[in-house]
Amino acid sequence: MDIGIIGTGAVGSALASGWAAAGHDVVLGSRTPDSTAADGTRVQVRGQREAAAFGDVVVLALPAGAVTDVATYLENELAEKPVVDTTNEYPFASDDRSLAVRLAETVPQARVVKAFNTVGAERLADPVVDGQPATMFLAGDDLRACDVVAGLARDLGFDPLRAGDVDAAEHLEHLARFWISLSQTYGRDIAFRLLEE
C-alpha cells in the first residue's frame, strides 16, 4: 500500500520505519522536505502536499495544534481517503470535541480514523510485549477505512480493535492521556492490551 505520513517527528518516523519494513511504500511529508528520513529506512521525505497525494492512506502525525490547519491545506489530497489521526492534546483537551471529530468536521470528504495514539512512539514498530501484541484501538465512521487501518496495525504487530465510530475517539484521547500519566512512573515501553475470552 502507498502510505503518506504528514509529520517527520518520533511518531511519523516510527510508523514510516515499521510500515516500510512490512513492505509498504511510504513517503514522509514535511514543511522542510530536505530533512532526513527515519534512520535505517529508505523512506523518502517530500513536501506535505506531495506526500498526501502519494498516499492511498494518509496519516497525520503532527502536533495537535497544527492538525486542522494542515488538514485544511491538504483538503483536496485527503478527499475520499482513509485519514489517520494519531494526535493527542496533553494534559487537557482544548475543546469538548475530540481532535478526530474536529478533523472530520474540517475535511468532511476524508474518511477519518483515530488510531496509533494510545502508545508511545517507541512501541509503534515493536508492539509485542512478552509475546503478547498490544491492542491498537481505533475509531471511525467508515468501516472500510477502519478495516484498512486495522490491517496496517496488524502489519506493525498490533492486535487491532475498533472501539466505535468517530465519536469514540474521545475515549481514545482520554486513554492516551492516561498512558502518558502512567509512562511517567513505568516508562515509555508500556502498552495496553484488552483481554477477552
Descriptors:
8 helices, Rossmann fold, alpha/beta
Give a topology summary.
Layout: E1 2-6, H1 10-21, E2 25-30, E3 44-47, H2 48-54, E4 57-60, H3 67-73, H4 75-78, E5 82-85, H5 99-106, E6 111-114, H6 121-124, E7 128-129, E8 132-133, E9 135-140, H7 143-156, E10 159-164, H8 169-186
Parallel strand pairs: 1-2, 1-4, 2-3, 4-5, 5-6, 9-10
Antiparallel strand pairs: 6-9, 7-8
Helix pairs in contact: 3-5
Verbal overview:
The termini are far apart. It contains eight helices and ten strands. Helix 1 links the parallel strand 1 and strand 2. Helix content is 38%, strand content 22%. The radius of gyration is 15 Å and the shape is globular. Helix 3 packs parallel to helix 5. The chain is of the alpha/beta class and 197 residues long.
